[in-house]
């Protein structure tokens, strides 16, 4: 479970950072179709906010994974 949380967490953080960078600066034009905020049509016009939320969700998953490791080490 920890491995899945780590993998999904890092993927969401990368999507969030990539979405913010692409929306603000126009970088990563080659990855435009790979970013989640550009694929979902209902996010049109709200890409920056959605990218921030996706990145924060990734950080939450990573902290949950770290929390699981700490509780496992205590027992």
What does this structure look like?
The chain has 75 residues and is an all-alpha fold. It is 75% helix and 0% strand. The protein has 3 helices and no strands. It has helices spanning 2-25, 36-39, 47-74. It is elongated, with a radius of gyration of 14 Å. It starts with a helix and ends with a helix.
Question: Topology of this structure?
Answer:
Blueprint: H1 2-25, H2 36-39, H3 47-74
Helix pairs in contact: 1-3
Question: Key terms for this structure?
Answer:
75% helix; 75 residues; mainly alpha; 0% strand
Number of E-state strands: 0
Tally of separate helices: 3
Q: Flag low-confidence runs.
A: none
Structural class: mainly alpha
Shape: elongated
Order of helices and strands: HHH
Overall pLDDT level? 89
Strand content: under 5%
* Main sheet record: none
Distance between the termini: 17 Å
Radius of gyration: 14 Å
Helicity range: over 70%
Produce a short descriptive summary.
The chain is mainly α and 75 residues long. It has helices spanning 2-25, 36-39, 47-74. The longest helix is centred in the last third of the chain and has 28 residues, at 47-74.
């Amino acid at each position: 479970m920890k491995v899945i949380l780590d993998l999904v967490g890092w993927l969401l953080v990368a999507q969030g950072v990539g979405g913010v960078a692409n929306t603000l600066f126009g970088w990563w034009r080659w990855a435009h179709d790979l970013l989640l905020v550009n694929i979902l049509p209902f996010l049109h016009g709200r890409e920056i906010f959605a990218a921030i939320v996706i990145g924060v969700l990734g950080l939450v998953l990573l902290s949950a994974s770290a929390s699981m490791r700490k509780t496992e080490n205590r027992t």
